[in-house]
Amino acid sequence: VGRSELDLSELNVASLELDGNVGQINLTLPRQGRSQITLEGGVGELVIAAPMGTAARIQVDGGLGGVVTEGRFTHVGRVYTTAAYDAAQERVEVRVKGGIGRLTLREGVLE
Prior knowledge:
By secondary structure, the chain is an all-beta fold. 0% of the residues lie in helices and 56% in strands.
């Protein structure tokens, strides 16, 4: 598959596992609830958008070519979080397993 678009912003997703090798994944995280999302397999480019007010933590457990952050993300090692993550009751945890050529973390929704 060349490109996958997944907009979860208006959904309440408790758990999601994606497996596959694709060129590009554009993923917009859920705005509400507690979610655990796992992505496995190689991805050329992964773009993760956290809508305004979304508390998110992204952990990368594979090879990583480069990371671009746009907005309020901080990181320690290969774990990236939004500013509100630690205190939030509703939050999204993303775990990326597998190689990624480029990871872009963006505040807001993808257009």
